[in-house]
């Protein structure tokens, strides 16, 4: 009986670590997508979504003071490979 009990604990611990969900290495980031210029900005990393939310107004104020027009703001768990991604104006002109 003790063996079965230990086996159940082992399975429970193993499934807790193997459960799908955000990677343990992914932190919370603020993602701001602007229309002018057409860019995606990532601010972070943060330990919690609440911490990320508390910094968001300052990021929006900075971007708006630079003339950016905001499209969307999201707080999300991720690991961005780049913190600023802007569409190349030259490639947009070539597509027309």
Structural write-up:
The protein has about 100 residues and is of the alpha+beta class. The protein has a domain at about 25-90. About 45% of the residues lie in helices and about 30% in strands. It has 3 helices and 4 strands; from the N terminus they run αββαββα. It has helices at about 1-20, 50-65, 90-95; strands at about 25-35, 40-45, 70-80, 85. The chain has a 4-stranded antiparallel beta sheet with strand order 3-1-2-4, with helices on one face. A hairpin with a 2-residue loop joins strand 1 (about 25-35) and strand 2. The radius of gyration is 21 Å and the shape is globular.
What's the short story on this structure?
The chain is α+β, with helices and mostly antiparallel strands. Helix content is about 45%, strand content about 30%.
Walk me through the topology.
Layout: H1 2-18, E1 27-36, E2 39-46, H2 49-65, E3 69-78, E4 84-86, H3 89-95
Antiparallel strand pairs: 1-2, 1-3, 2-4
Helix percent reads 40-55%
Low-confidence stretches: 4-8, 10-20, 90-96
What is the percentage of strand-forming residues?
25-35%
Helix-strand category: alpha+beta
Shape: globular
The chain-level mean pLDDT equals 79
Terminus-to-terminus distance? 73 Å
Strand order of the largest sheet: 3-1-2-4
Rounded radius of gyration (Å): 21 Å
Q: Could you spell the SSE succession in H and E letters?
A: HEEHEEH
Largest sheet: 4 strands, antiparallel
How many helical elements? Answer: 3
Number of β-strand runs: 4
């Amino acid at each position: 009986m003790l063996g079965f009990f230990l086996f159940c604990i082992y399975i429970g611990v193993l499934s807790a670590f193997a459960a799908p969900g955000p990677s343990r290495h992914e932190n919370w980031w603020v993602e701001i997508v602007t229309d002018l210029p057409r860019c995606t900005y990532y601010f972070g990393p943060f330990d919690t979504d609440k911490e990320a939310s508390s910094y968001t107004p300052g990021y929006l104020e900075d971007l708006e003071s630079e003339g950016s027009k905001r499209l969307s703001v999201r707080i999300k768990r991720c690991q961005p490979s780049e913190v600023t991604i802007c569409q190349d104006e030259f490639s947009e002109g070539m597509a027309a």
